[in-house]
Design brief:
Helices cover about 75% and strands about 0% of the residues. The N terminus is likely disordered. The protein is built from five helices and no strands.
């Protein structure tokens, strides 16, 4: 009996994943912009948070792909903010400086990986982040 329930659930889960990851070229482009908005914050403060927030708020009800991508990017940005504040506090004992550089490198790498996944229409799940927006 448990085999039947497992077999019945498998196709349903596959359909949900397929439905979420189906994205047209416009949605993939906006997802790419969400992930790459990290680099905009080098020029405009808080752009890495504002850009994905605006895209997510505008498209969350019409696109499951952008809903999931926007939440993931916003959670990533919130986690980066918390980690950066912790590193600034830890600069008092000098360990915050190398940790801040490590966080910056990881953020750049993860943003690029997310952008590549978004360009393929896939939802990228950032590792090691707090998922505060559900």
């Amino acid at each position: 009996m448990s085999e039947n329930s497992t077999e019945n659930n498998a196709p349903v889960e596959a359909e949900v994943v397929q439905e979420v990851t189906t994205a047209d070229s416009n949605e993939r482009t906006l997802g790419l912009v969400c992930h790459l908005s990290l680099f905009a914050s080098f020029i405009v403060p808080f752009a890495s948070f504002i850009i994905p927030l605006v895209i997510w708020l505008m498209k969350r009800e019409t696109s499951q792909f952008l809903d999931a991508t926007g939440k993931e990017v916003l959670n990533f940005q919130i986690t980066l903010l918390i980690a950066s504040i912790a590193c600034c506090i830890l600069m008092i004992i000098l360990i915050g400086i190398p940790l801040l550089f490590a966080i910056a490198i990881a953020a750049i790498v993860f943003a690029i990986l997310g952008a590549v996944a978004a360009s393929k229409g896939e939802i990228y799940r950032y590792p090691f982040i707090l998922r505060l927006i559900k």
